[in-house]
């Protein structure tokens, strides 16, 4: 089974409880300014975090990178992986492909992605995101990039049945200004963005943040730049033996999210569904068996 990719950011966050006070101070600074904080010199990082240079070196060694140069190189490799093209991904998988049928290899990778993704989801954060989406006082908007927009469309199609006040934002700049007129402080923007991260999505997120919207981000282990504005961020494993990344784990998270919202709003949701079915019947929308 494909090993799950754990970002350096997640590794630092996961180890923070076992750190000394100075190391925690340094780690907190790195997490607030990741990955930029790790691209400068030891001296610059120590000064910015208000710790000593030996503390920087010691943390890098504790994290298993041998020293600060090793940590920096790992960050650079991670950033390069964010931008890898479909052709490069295909070549990498093809070189190490085992002699088994593609159905088995692909399913093996997808199941591994799903298990690893679910294992790292913070349940308290997930529940808090559900509560935001279930709050009738908040309007909900959703958007995505070239590959992930269909997930946002799927989400809005179902959420419009579950509750009112749900809108899809197409990632094209001429559609944003009208949406910004409706978006108010406290509204929720659900964002789907995986590598290679798109400028349009980031620009929309920045505009929504200026409006005071709460952001929920679904991204990958390398983390979309939109994370800087996200209140809640959920990273899913996406690598499979293909030129393209898999969104199966993200889809499972989204369907679980909707099911959880539905359970909190069931009385209103059931009434909406009953009215909708009546409208479908009047319009003879669905085919009936003979």
From TrEMBL:
Transcription recorded as keyword: yes
Gene3D superfamilies the UniProt entry points to: Glucose-6-phosphate isomerase like protein, domain 1, Winged helix-like DNA-binding domain superfamily/Winged helix DNA-binding domain
InterPro entries in UniProt: Homeodomain-like_sf (IPR009057), HTH_RpiR (IPR000281), RpiR-like (IPR047640), RpiR-like_SIS (IPR035472), SIS_dom (IPR001347), SIS_dom_sf (IPR046348), WH-like_DNA-bd_sf (IPR036388)
Residues annotated as domain HTH rpiR-type: 6-82
Record carries keyword Protein transport: no
Stored PROSITE patterns: HTH_RPIR
Keywords: DNA-binding, Transcription, Transcription regulation
Superkingdom: Bacteria
Matching PANTHER family: GLUCOKINASE (PTHR30514), RPIR-FAMILY TRANSCRIPTIONAL REGULATOR (PTHR30514:SF18)
Name assigned to this protein: MurR/RpiR family transcriptional regulator
Organism: Thioclava arctica
Source species taxonomy: Bacteria, Pseudomonadati, Pseudomonadota, Alphaproteobacteria, Rhodobacterales
